[in-house]
């Protein structure tokens, strides 16, 4: 019976050793799994931060482009307003020049009509004087 108890003790000791080794293997495996899990989590976190940084850079470029577009639009509006003002000035000057030219034209026509009348009257007086000289 003592041999049997010793055999069972050895078996129990052997089983205890197997259980202990299994526990150590499981603990080691659990450590490796946790380490790999954390590596994966940290890798995903880094990838997410990289994507977020890239998104922020794209957003910053978009905002700069929008600001440049707004500045360009404002500059174009200033140029268009200045051009409209120049065009109004040119139009006003042209209208004034046209009105002045029409006034000068009317004055010249009146002067010409007056001269023609004077010439007709001068011709009539000359004809009358010629008639008088011929009749005497």
Rg estimate, integer Å: 57 Å
Shape, principal axes of CA atoms: rod-shaped
Number of helices: 1
- Proportion in helices: over 70%
Instruction: Calculate the mean pLDDT score and round it.
Output: 94
Distance between the termini: 196 Å
- Derived structural class: mainly alpha
Which sheet architecture does the biggest sheet show?
Answer: none
Question: Which strand-content bin applies to the residues?
Answer: under 5%
What oligomerization state is this entry in?
A: single chain
Entry summary:
With 136 residues, the chain is an all-alpha fold. The protein is built from one helix and no strands. The radius of gyration is 57 Å and the shape is rod-shaped.
Question: What features would you describe in this structure?
Answer:
By secondary structure, the chain is an all-alpha fold. 99% of the residues lie in helices and 0% in strands. It is built from one helix and no strands. The radius of gyration is 57 Å and the shape is rod-shaped. The mean pLDDT is 94.
Looking at this protein, list some descriptive labels:
mainly alpha; 1 helix
């Amino acid at each position: 019976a003592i041999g049997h108890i010793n055999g069972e003790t050895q078996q129990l000791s052997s089983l205890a050793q197997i259980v202990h080794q299994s526990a150590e293997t499981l603990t080691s495996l659990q450590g490796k799994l946790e380490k790999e899990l954390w590596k994966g989590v940290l890798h995903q976190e880094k990838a997410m931060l990289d994507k977020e940084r890239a998104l922020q850079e794209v957003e910053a470029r978009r905002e700069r482009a929008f600001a440049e577009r707004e500045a360009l639009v404002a500059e174009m509006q200033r140029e268009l307003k200045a051009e409209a003002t120049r065009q109004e000035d040119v139009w006003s000057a042209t209208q004034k020049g046209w009105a002045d030219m029409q006034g000068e034209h009317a004055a010249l026509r009146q002067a010409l009509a007056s001269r023609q009348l004077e010439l007709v009257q001068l011709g009539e007086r000359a004809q009358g004087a010629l008639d008088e000289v011929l009749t005497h």
